[in-house]
Amino acid sequence: MLRNLSSAHDGPVWALQRTAEVPEAVASAGADGMVKLWDARQVKPAGQVQTGNAVYALAMSRGTLISSGYDGIVQLWDIRMGSVSLAASLQAHRAPVRALVVESKTVWSGSTDGTVRCWDLDHLLKPRARITSGLSNRQAFEHYVSSGVIENDLSEENI
Fold first, then answer.
1. How far apart are CA 69 and CA 57, in angstroms?
2. φ, ψ for residue 21 (rounded to 5)?
3. 147: left (phi over 0), alpha (psi -120 to 50) or beta
4. C-alpha closest to that of 121 among 131, 129, 113
5. Most CB atoms within 10 A, among 70, 94, 111, 148?
6. Backbone phi, then psi, for 128, in 5-degree steps?
7. Pairwise CA distance, residues 57 & 103, whole Å
8. 121 — phi, psi (to 5°)?
9. Which residues is 49 bridged to in the sheet?
10. Beta-carbon contacts of residue 130 (< 8 Å; ≥ 6 apart)
């Protein structure tokens, strides 16, 4: 064992993520609602933020850390300067999000509500889209979201 970070989180750690773009960066999250950015060369967090709810899923791409969990909110964090600052927030699902994947410029989220949704990462990070929450604010995003339920019913809705 190289390192044992026995006090990394208060409670279970449910997500770990890294990216080839920044090989020294590792992110962790869990039941305590903390998202921590670690420099793999150190034992201390390089940055951290309290989300307020348990975090079940993490993804990373191009200097952005994406988290989601119990509240169904997908949060995008700017990690380019070695700290963690909120870049955008979106009420993506009405139930907990258990999975996140970034493919190219698209963020995919999967929820216990039976839906899979995809979001245009560039659009979410535009300055006018910053800090938007609530399903009632869907009009703020002028791109398409694909939503599929477990029965493989895939549809597109313009939000």
1. 6
2. -65, -35
3. beta
4. 129
5. 111
6. -75, -15
7. 15
8. -60, -45
9. 35
10. 87, 88
Q: What is the pLDDT of residues 9-54, one digit of tens each?
A: 888 999 999 877 777 888 999 999 999 888 878 767 788 889 999 9
Dihedral angle sign, alpha carbons of residues 70, 73, 56, 27: negative
Whether the CA torsion 56, 106, 91, 67 is positive or negative: it is positive
Burial class for 13, CB neighbours closer than 10 Å (0-12, 13-18, 19+): middle
Q: What is the pLDDT of residues 96-108, one digit of tens each?
A: 999 999 998 899 9
Residues 17 and 107: their CA atoms lie apart, in Å, by: 14
- Residue 112 CB-density burial (10 A; 0-12 exposed, 13-18 middle, 19+ buried): middle
Helix (H) or strand (E) holding 122: helix 121-124
pTM over 0.85: no
Distance between CA atoms of 95 and 102, rounded to whole angstroms? 20
Question: φ, ψ for residue 135 (rounded to 5)?
Answer: -65, -25
